[in-house]
Amino acid sequence: MGDDPYYFKGNLNRVTVDMDNEDYRLVLFFIKKGTRMPLHDHPNMSVFFRLVFGSLDYRSYDKVDEKFKYNNFVDDEYHEILSSKKRILAKKSRAMSLKTDDVLFVRPSVNNMHEFVAKENSCFFDICLPNYTPMSYSRRITYFKEIMKDQTTQ
């Protein structure tokens, strides 16, 4: 399956099993060799991750400030944070290579910001509890860019 062109048409493809449910989301990701899944978070969520096949380099971070750890802000404040590209202090919590059948558990405040780089064509399964809620900033995905050791920006 790792060489099946159907699943690896693009660098990062996904099959979402259920995305309209606020309680959970099931998604299967196919990530082509050399592709980076950007640094992102799962605010106020837990995620069960299983690498179905392949090999990934994994790095995770924990947000330091409680306000950012739990996205504890209002709409205007969130937009200001994004537009000003505010720096968010985070500490690297884990760096590892993942192999077929490895399992991870992301908690709301532990390993909650992370990124993957595929060392070979890979597939992983995520169960997000609860699901993202784009209309609420408490569970809206945000992408980050590492700018210096132990700091990231939105």
- What integer is the average pLDDT? 87
- Count of DSSP E strands? 9
Measured as a percent range, the helix fraction is: under 10%
Rg calculated over all Cα atoms: 15 Å
CATH superfamily: Jelly Rolls
CATH class: Mainly Beta
Provide the succession of SSEs.
EEEEHHEEEEE
Please identify, by name, the CATH architecture.
Sandwich
CATH topology: Jelly Rolls
Number of helices: 2
Number of domains: 1
Largest sheet entry:
9 strands, antiparallel
Name the structural class: mainly beta
What is the 3D form? Answer: globular
Q: pLDDT below 50 for ≥5 consecutive residues: which ranges?
A: none
Q: Which key terms come to mind for this protein?
A:
single chain, 154 residues, mainly beta, Jelly Rolls, 9 strands, 9% helix
Written overview of the protein:
The protein is mainly beta. The chain has one domain (12-153): Jelly Rolls. 9% of the residues lie in helices and 51% in strands. The protein has 2 helices and 9 strands; from the N terminus they run ββββααβββββ. Strands 1, 2, 3, 4, 5, 6, 7, 8 and 9 form a 9-stranded antiparallel sheet that branches. The model has no long low-confidence stretch (mean pLDDT 87).
